[in-house]
Amino acid sequence: MKPEISRLRDLAAAPILSFLALSTGLAADLTLGVEPRYPAEQMAGEYKPLVDYLSRATGHKINLVVAPSYHSYWRDLRENRKLDIVLEDAHFVSYRNARFHYVPVVKVAEPASFTLVASDLLTDPTLNTLVGKRVVTMPSPSLGYAALTEMYPNLIRQPEVESLAKSWKDGVEIVFGGDAEATILPTPLAQQYPNLIPVGTSRDFPGAAVLVRPTLDPKIVGQIATAFLEAHNEQSLIDFNTGLFISQWVPAKAADYTGQDAVLKTFFGYRAN
Predict the structure, then answer these.
(1) Which of 96, 116, 118, 151 shows its CA 20 to 30 Å from the CA of 202?
(2) Domain membership flag for residue 193
């Protein structure tokens, strides 16, 4: 057969093969929404190992969806922006599940907590002595910000909260630079800075979870769950997991997160279920 004829037959068959791949569910384009835990320009690079791993492990194309800020993330959540997969903290998991029926499939094995740490230039800092002082945090309604509001329930006696940090480590740099007296950090990160003084630690929250939209193909859901449950064996994810304090993923259920959205009640736009 002449090469020209063979090439024409291949071109003619391409649309049919594409249709068959779609109709049999061999591969799909899936969106993965994540919290803006890093500066916008870093997000794609920070999550690339996870996106690449999930694409290989599931056989589907995973497309990262990044909100430019926590304010945008919270708005998109309230407006139920369609996402196939979401990785987020407990309060958002609870809100998304209760109102839009997204289903948690796996979660980080360890609970999450946050520790308020102060500059070692302060003398014997306490929750009370930080009232009126500058405390830097990730913007609202990040879970760290929400945890800080629980530490200071009295609206009259609170620190001067500055939501300037673009990442948790950015908060540390702001304190070291003298532009704030304290910052709130994930507890595992706070423990890495012995020259910062622990002032108080939040309650434990359930670990971050992966949710899927309620209409996603159960077969794909199973593939996603399996990929996460086996992710601790993946060498390419070591730095990613370390950065987000993930040792292992375990199965999750909606009941694990019931009521965790209560910490969002003080933030603009919250609505009861």
Answers:
(1) 96
(2) yes
